[in-house]
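N-acetylglucosamine-6-sulfatase-like isoform X2
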Amino acid sequence: MATVLLMSMFVIFANIVVGAIAVKPPNIVLILTDDQDVALFGQYPMPKTKQLIADAGMTFTNMFVSSPLCCPSRSSILTGQFVHNHMVTNNSQSGNCSSTSWQSSAEKKTFPVYLQANGYKTFFAGKYLNEYGSPQAGGVAHVPPGWDDWNGLVGNSVYYNYTLSVQGQAESHGDNYQQDYLTDVIHRKAVNFLNSVSSRKPFFMMLSTPACHQPFTSAPQYLQNFTDRRAPRTKHFNIHGKDKHWLVEKTITPMPNDTIELIDDFFRNRWRTLLSVDDMVEGVVNKLKAIGELNNTYIFFTSDNGYHLGQFSLPYDKRQFYDFDIQVPLMVRGPGVKTNSTCQESVMSVDLAPTILDLANLPPPSVFDGSTFKPILHGQPHTYRATVLVEYHGEQVDLINNCPKYNGQGLAQCDTHCVCRDSWNNTYGCIRYETQQNSYKYCALQDTDNFVEVYDLRADPYELINIAKTASPDLLTKLSQDLADLSMCAGETCHKKSSSSFNIN
């Protein structure tokens, strides 16, 4: 009798253990590149990533960022909030980028905090926020909440000669490729972390590479790749924008020959840096497979903002509201995601945080402005997002050393030909409205002219013709009102506004 009872207890215990293993929450990996575009074929040099993530899962063709600049966009990814709520307006401390104010408020509510509090082992390696590690905000000793294993880059994207904060301690790197190339360092640290994970505890990894951000330093073995390539001569390449806002009107058309040569060089080098990211994706996927976790892991691949190279004669950068700067890659694979599938519905960077928590079976906090797209991943009924919001605050400096004629005119970051990348009046709010029938963009600038740009993206995907003066008053009123509503939304009110329907004919 005792033997039978003992055997029964063993069977019950075994079933409990097996059940616990079966319901283990999924692991989640977020790979974030820097300045990787869609419009200029930024995903082309990554065949391994396409095969291992896109072909094995879902590709989103309409993924947009909340702001076309690194720190505001990354802050939105982490908090699930729009710029007007997390209040990170640019890449500086004064713009709240990794500031003490950020640390005391928004940083305490980022989605890794919730994952860690609910049993996830968390890992970060690479670029965090542009001003991370600055002495004014705690230096390398400051480890953001939510991370068990922290390897944060001090400052902005570089490939050599940098410092990492490793668990709050400075780790210095030089210019030796084998030891210091940052993308490969992130790769190695990720693999080492995966070697340490437990089969009983879920994990979250965020791998934030410097590629393909300036200074576009590729690994030595890739220096000769793409030598016959040049930047795409898109329909809006090297033309002067018609009826565009003030900063675009200040460009030089046609662009000088040395500018075009520089653009082509940037294009090739950007692609070259992505080859090491492609290697990293392959290494991480292979390691997940080797440790038996691949089939229980969601892998997200995306970027913080897009990029332009000569579009509307803007030489190089981001910061604009045109699709080349706000549209980014998004590929997701994981349990329940249909292989080799495509989603054309609009999603945003603010949606990543609630989606990741939802996949972890955790309720997204009410302060999140974004909405989960887990139902899309699993092919389930869901609310259609009709409208996305993009916000940007232009920057200025008083003195332009290489262009003294622009001193005191509110410009910033001007090249050798005095074509500037930013200005005080490059401040705007935009919505992009998308349904199966209609696709419009409405952008209102905060300048002395209250300038507005409106595009019918179905008829004019390259945003060549500003219809602000010719569109129907009803259309303009509806788009303007939706922009005003979204620009003031918070939490669940953003969900209602972003999924609104206009019934536009």
